[in-house]
Design brief:
Belongs to the ammonia transporter channel (TC 1.A.11.2) family. GO terms for molecular function: ammonium channel activity. Pfam families: Ammonium_transp. The structure is a single chain. With 488 residues, the chain is mainly alpha-helical. The protein has two domains: 23-438, Ammonium transporter AmtB like domains (Ammonium transporter fold); 447-487. It has helices at residues 23-51, 57-84, 101-104, 115-134, 143-166, 171-175, 183-201, 206-210, 217-236, 244-272, 277-291, 300-319, 326-330, 337-355, 358-365, 376-382, 385-417, 427-432, 434-438, 454-487, and strands spanning 87-89, 92-93, 446-447, 450-451. Strand 1 and strand 2 form a beta hairpin. The radius of gyration is 27 Å and the shape is globular.
Length: 488
């Protein structure tokens, strides 16, 4: 007989709570993951569906929703183990399924919670990366091509970047690159890939490029609000514990974002005379992106400085340089993903290399920071100049790696997809939009006081004719009755 049955009930081991499990850490990690998931569904689904023309609302929202579902199956099937599994090559793990019960209930490479929690947490990061890429392609990409693009890009691009930078055995991770929560893996990668894919897919229809007003600005703000608040889990969950560093990361995130939004707003007022709601939303996004690689490893004053730069440098690149540089003018990047994610992500990576505080890095990485994780500003201050410049060099190397990898892999993927289905919608579909692609419309009943559905129009016309007939009949009857009354 097992001795376990002879133990008092209060001393019996709980198989659901092994010694290494922290219930607090597990609860926060699941909550943080869900917050990040809400950034995509419904956050970016709402944002994309409302910031485009009415005729593209369904298609834009559905591109985001499809990507979220498709990434999950690919992630548990092979993507997670390629990103965080056993080493295969210096920048990739071995492909393997991540659904085995023993594996899911075991402890991951970091954190005091089950592998199942880690897989879920990392999935929502992978999903939002693909959805951000979609932002550059709204309004013209063939949906069937997008269905192929999502699993291919996740497999042959995202996994390489995630393993290289975030997995402890990745080559850039071993060099000491600082990417707290995805400035490189998510935002720089999505910006570079989105811009490249937009080049291969081609531009929107001329009418859409000339005028592309949002169909619902209030809903756009609702989606943007979900994106901002969800970032609490985005950056607050990356210490993988309920720690002081998580709290610092959350506060720095919101401070930088608010500063960036206000900076962008003031620049719009100064140079264009009006406070643009869409502009303020762009400033919000660039602030969130810029602070992401640095959230828990910089001090509060640095977060404010980063907000000032993330609200001004991407503003300048979007409003000024975009109109002057030939390549930027040629590529139709619908949501300006290049500026809001590639430029802001690169800026954040560089500023992280400058402002990263050794003591905070020690809290996050739990290692000695004498040779690694020293921002250049602190290297100069403490006499460790070589270490500071080395950190800056590693940050720049990471930027070059992510950009080149995504230009190459995204180009190859688009080239291969063209042999199966067209990357771009046909001209008649570009003119019609949602109804031609999905047979559905976002606002199927009313627009500008009139019906937009042919069946509704026919019904109303028929009803009006019958109403007119009834009025005529009633009028005739009343006249006859009046004549009879007067004669009598």
């Amino acid at each position: 007989m097992s001795t376990e049955w002879n133990l008092p009930s209060g001393l019996m081991p709980d198989p659901a709570s092994p010694d290494w499990l922290s219930k607090a850490d597990n609860a926060w990690q699941l909550t943080a993951a869900t917050l990040v998931g809400l950034q995509s569904v419904p956050g970016l689904v709402i944002l994309y569906g409302s910031i485009v023309k009415k005729k593209w609302a369904v298609n834009s929202a559905f591109m985001a929703l499809y990507a979220f579902a498709a990434v999950l199956l690919c992630w548990v099937g092979w993507g997670y183990r390629m990103s965080f599994g056993d080493k295969f090559i210096p920048f990739l793990g071995k492909p393997d399924v991540a659904l085995d019960q023993k594996y899911l209930l075991g402890q991951p490479f970091v954190g005091k919670f089950p592998n199942a929690t880690m897989i879920y947490f990392q999935f929502v990061f992978a999903a939002i990366t693909l959805i951000l890429i979609a932002g550059a392609l709204l309004g013209r990409m063939n949906f069937h091509a997008w269905m192929l693009f999502v699993p291919l890009w996740l497999t042959f691009s995202y996994t390489f970047t995630a393993y290289s930078i975030w997995c402890p055995t990745g080559w850039l991770a071993k060099m000491g690159i600082i990417d707290y929560s995805g400035g490189y893996v998510i935002h720089l990668a999505s910006g570079a890939a989105g811009f490249t894919a937009a080049f291969w897919v081609g531009p929107r229809a001329n009418k859409d490029r000339e005028r592309f007003p949002p169909n619902n600005i209030l809903l756009m703000l609702a989606g943007a609000g979900l994106l901002w608040m969800g970032w609490t889990g985005f950056n607050g969950g990356d210490p993988y514990s309920v720690s002081v560093d998580a709290s610092l990361a959350v506060l720095n995130t919101h401070v930088c974002t608010a500063t960036s939004l206000l900076t962008w707003l003031f620049l719009d007022i100064i140079f264009f005379g009006k406070p643009s709601v869409i502009g303020a939303t762009q400033g919000m996004i660039t602030g969130l992106v810029c602070i992401t690689p640095a959230a828990g490893v910089v001090q509060g004053w640095a977060a404010i400085l980063m907000g000032l730069m993330s609200g001004s440098i991407p503003w300048y690149s979007m409003m000024v340089l975009h109109k002057k540089i030939w390549l930027l003018k040629q590529v139709d990047d619908t949501m300006a993903v290049f500026h809001t994610h590639a430029v802001a992500g690169s800026l954040g990576g560089i500023l992280t290399g400058f402002f990263a505080e050794p003591k905070l890095n020690r809290l996050f990485y739990l290692v000695d920071t004498w040779q690694h994780y020293i921002g250049l500003a602190y290297g100069l201050q403490t006499g460790r100049t070589t270490a500071g410049f080395k950190q800056m060099g590693i940050q720049l190397l990471g930027i070059i790696f992510v950009i080149l990898l995504n230009i190459f892999t995204t180009s190859v993927i688009c080239f291969l997809i063209k042999f199966v289905v067209p990357l771009r919608l046909a001209d008649d579909e570009l003119q019609t939009g949602d109804d031609a692609i999905h047979g559905e419309e976002a606002y199927a009943l009313w627009e500008m006081g009139r019906s937009t559905s042919p069946s509704i129009i026919q019904f109303m016309k028929s009803s009006l004719r019958w109403f007119q007939r009834v009025v005529v009949v009633v009028g005739v009857v009343r006249l006859k009755w009046l004549d009879l009354y007067l004669l009598n």
